[in-house]
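sanity check this record:

:::
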Amino acid sequence: MVLILLAIFAQAPDTLAPTRIEPGDVLEIVVLGEEELSRTLMVMHNGLISFPLIGDVHVDGLTTDEAANLLVEKLKKYFTHPAISVILKSPSTPHVSVFGEVLKPGAVEYQRGLKVTDYVALAGGTTHRAGLRRIKVIRIVSGKPVVETINLASVIKSGKQDQNYELKSGDWIYIPSRFTINWATLLQAATLLVSLVNLYIIIQND
C-alpha cells in the first residue's frame, strides 16, 4: 500500500519551467574578450560564487540568463560593454542518499524537481518496519548539517505537500524503524520475574 501511494505522489518535474541554479551546481562562466576572467565555479551551499573583481555573488534561484545579466551589471564598473555567457554543468554531487528502512538503500540519482516521496519511491519504497512519522532530511547549509523531521505518514494520508518539499543535490534521507514490541522477549522477562517472585516466597516460608 505504501509503495502504491508513494508512486502516486512521485511526479516528474515541470519540463517547461526554467532551470534554476542551486547550491552544488557547477557553472561555466565565459567572459567574451576577457578570457583570463572566464572560469568554472561551483555554487557554494550559501548560494554564492566568488568571481574576480566583484567578489561574492548570490546566484541561487536564478536562471543562467539572469545570472549572466547580474554579472554583466556588476562588471560594468570595470568594462564598458561586458558580454558574459553562463552555462550550467552537472552538479558536483549528483545524487540524494536514502538510508534506513527502504528496500534499496544508497545513492539515488539526483533529478531537479523531485521531492522526498519521489526519492523514497526511487529507493524501492519503505519496508514494513519503517517509521514514517519521523523521517529525517539532512542537508549541509553554510558548511553545517541541518536536520529536519518530516511526518511522511501525514503526507501520504492527507495529500498535503507542505512537508513533501523538493530536495537538493547532496541531501540525505533517513527512514528509522518504528517502535515495535518484542512479545517473545517480553514473555521471557515476565516468566523470569514470576520465577523470581516464587523463589522469594519459598525462601520466606522456610
Observations:
- The beta strands are 26-31, 39-42, 48-51, 55-58, 84-89, 95-100, 106-109, 135-141, 144-150, 172-175.
